[in-house]
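call fold(seq) -> tokens
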Amino acid sequence: FALTVYGGMIPALGPLLILIGGLAYPILQRAPRRQLPALLKRPEFAAEVESHSGQFGHGGALARLRSPGADSRQAARALIAIETRRDQATTRLLNETLGHPDETLRLIAHNLLGRREKAVVARMTDLEKTIRSANQATPRMALDLAELHLEFLYLGIVEGALRSLHLDAAERLLAGLGDPDPELPWITRLLLLRARLKQVSAPSSEKAEISENYKRALELGAAPSRALPWLLEQAWHSRDYPAIQQLANKYPVNSGIPVIGPVMQRWSSHGDT
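ret:
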């Protein structure tokens, strides 16, 4: 369009401008030079950003610790990685590492075990201060405190007399709440904690009561992923496969939840295949 205007308005210079424009146009439209990618080196002060948790699980850490002649650096990284997975299995692994011939690994394990206990003790201390300042524990405070007592047992960081002490404390707190109105918002949490208490105290002799608490919690709206594992495990041991499928269909679980999600997805579609 610009070249046409030049040709029409300036007859003398039009042909010359058209010639210049025709020669310059391909040059102006040439694609810009492609930039090559550059690799940025990680600065020396950022060495701590290296990830550990994605490389080791409980089994991998166990293999590195028990393998003869294993690299102590890899074993140390494995111990640090499993710290994010706080349960009885990893606590047993840390306790086992306390007898490892490598002094560095023993110190790491001792420190990680201390962290687990201190974390629960700190939360319990803060809660007890709140209860003392209020002169009375509300039901929610009692549930929080009972859950912290059970956390010691769940993590497996107490044994013997200390275990009995925390068990008795949790039992007294839950018993003090009685049998509250099912309409209360914390009723499902109470039922779940009572079931967990029986699981760690007398799982073989209280199976009926444990199952009843979990089933009642599910009926009142508890998260299926918190109540179903025990019920599914009991049905599996008794080879009651229809009960497993019935639970899977009645209480759907998001497939993205670790362990139980894929299991429930498999059983919920079992009848259609």
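Residues 232 and 244 are 6 Å apart (CA to CA).
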